[in-house]
Write a structure and sequence with these properties.
about 10% strand; alpha+beta; Phosphorylase Kinase, domain 1
Length: about 425
């Protein structure tokens, strides 16, 4: 009787697959504990130094040391930690030493070899690459934590397209990373940070899950494109056109749009000596979210309060949104308003180029955010990204002031705001007037 065949390489590969999540978890916790304890020991050491200038120099060296460790962790583990680097590596939030180190990680996701990408494409699209594409660039235009994009040209078409393909097997590892981060968040909010970080990480888990469904992303892209072009035929915002019948859960084919990354716009203007003009192209729709009406209207009310400098209404809006806080500071209402501005507005105080929301004198330290609704994280992250862009471009503006007319219109339509100005507008909404400028 012949012995059953045994493939040693297959056995080793299956074993590695089973143990990979445990290995990543171990690597994460060893490094996270090292960074955390490094800061705790340093806080004790720096407390003995009375000279403020020397204290600042000591903090800068500690941040540089931690930045190197965070950079190495994100770079080595990749995947979800590249997204973490993008979130915390913004000049308006993290220490300057962190920003200088982490900003280089935004485009550092390793690319999946083309042979693997080719297998994914042919499985998802049901035909060979040669049958579908006249030309396909094997070297990707870019690679991110979830997918990479290639430039190509469909057969019988003279226009180029972009082919977005997921990295195989990355979803399971990313979920492992998120669960580890949730455990760290629970510990941090009980010991050091008076903020409901766990709810934030739960929403991250939900949104990351959405990003692995390209059909959902294509639907969001189509709806936004229809909205923009219906309201104005000459919209200043470009949304790529989807290629019919070329969207699956793991592959998305869309129109190629040539342009300049927005963070390089300042360099381009300096090089040309003029404003390059043109339009804005929105390319990634993986984290588009529909807000429930109550949340949307609650946020609209908060925007009006911030834009009008109304601290009392801002506090009421926090409660309406389900944000539960605990404070023992003397000027609670004023600190609550500062907290609202820090979390939900893009403006920077005069002379300030970098917010430090977790410094000892910040509102987040003075007011404990005990409950933070998960769905608000999408708004929080959007404002954070806009603030990072504005700081990077040297622009200081208030999104609350910019969005105030839209917020007023939404509240008026819901019967929560009485104002005769809106009765005269008829069908010509603020959105349409805004896009027609």
């Amino acid at each position: 009787m012949p012995l059953p065949s045994f493939d040693l390489n297959e056995f080793k590969e299956n074993l590695q697959t089973q143990f990979r999540p445990w290995q990543r978890s171990f690597q994460f916790w060893v490094r996270a504990v090292d960074i955390y304890t490094g800061y705790k020991v340093f806080q004790l050491r720096v407390s003995f130094e009375k000279d403020m200038e020397k204290q600042e120099a000591m903090w800068e060296r500690q941040h540089e040391l931690a930045a190197d460790k965070i950079y190495n962790m994100c770079c080595d583990l990749g995947g979800f930690f590249l997204k973490v680097a993008q979130i915390i590596g913004k000049p308006d939030l993290a220490p300057a030493a962190w920003v200088r180190r982490l900003v280089t990680l935004c485009d550092r996701a390793p690319a999946t070899p083309f042979d693997t990408i080719k297998l994914v494409l042919e499985k998802e699209l049901g035909a060979s690459v040669g049958e579908i594409f006249e030309r396909f660039d094997e070297n990707p235009l870019g690679s991110a934590s979830i997918a990479q994009v290639h430039r190509a040209r469909l057969k019988g078409d003279k226009r180029d397209v972009v082919v977005k393909v997921q990295h195989p097997g990355v979803q399971e590892l990313m979920m492992t990373d998120i669960h580890n981060l949730q455990a760290l968040a629970l510990y941090m909010q009980k010991t050091d940070i008076k903020f409901d970080l766990y709810s934030v990480t739960k929403e991250i888990e939900k949104q990351i899950g959405f990003e692995f469904d390209f059909k959902r992303e294509a639907d969001a892209m189509g709806r936004i494109r229809l909205f923009l072009y219906t309201n104005n035929k000459k919209s200043p915002v470009l949304v790529p056109r989807l290629m019919k019948d070329m969207v699956t859960r793991s592959v998305l084919v869309m129109e190629y749009i040539d342009g300049i990354p927005i963070m390089q716009l300042g360099d381009e203007m300096a090089k040309r000596g003029i404003n390059p003009g043109g339009k804005v192209g929105l390319l990634d729709y993986g984290q588009v979210k529909d807000l429930p009406d109550e949340l949307r209207l609650g946020y609209a009310s908060l925007m009006l309060a911030i834009a009008d400098g109304d601290a009392k209404r801002a506090s009421e809006s926090f409660r309406d949104l389900g944000i539960e806080t605990l404070s023992t500071c003397e000027d609670e209402q004023n600190e609550m308003f500062k907290l609202a501005e820090t979390m939900f507005d893009t403006t920077m105080p005069p002379g300030v180029t970098m917010l430090q929301p977790f410094s000892e004198d910040s509102s987040i330290k003075k007011i404990s955010v005990q409950t933070f609704p998960e769905e608000l994280f999408s708004i929080l992250r959007t404002v954070h990204l806009l603030r990072g862009l504005s700081v990077g471009l040297g622009i200081n503006y208030s999104c609350a002031e910019q969005w105030k007319p839209i917020a007023e219109e939404a509240l008026y339509a819901a019967g929560r705001l009485k104002d005769r100005r809106f009765e005269r507008r008829g069908r010509r909404t603020f959105i349409r007037r805004l896009l027609s400028r």
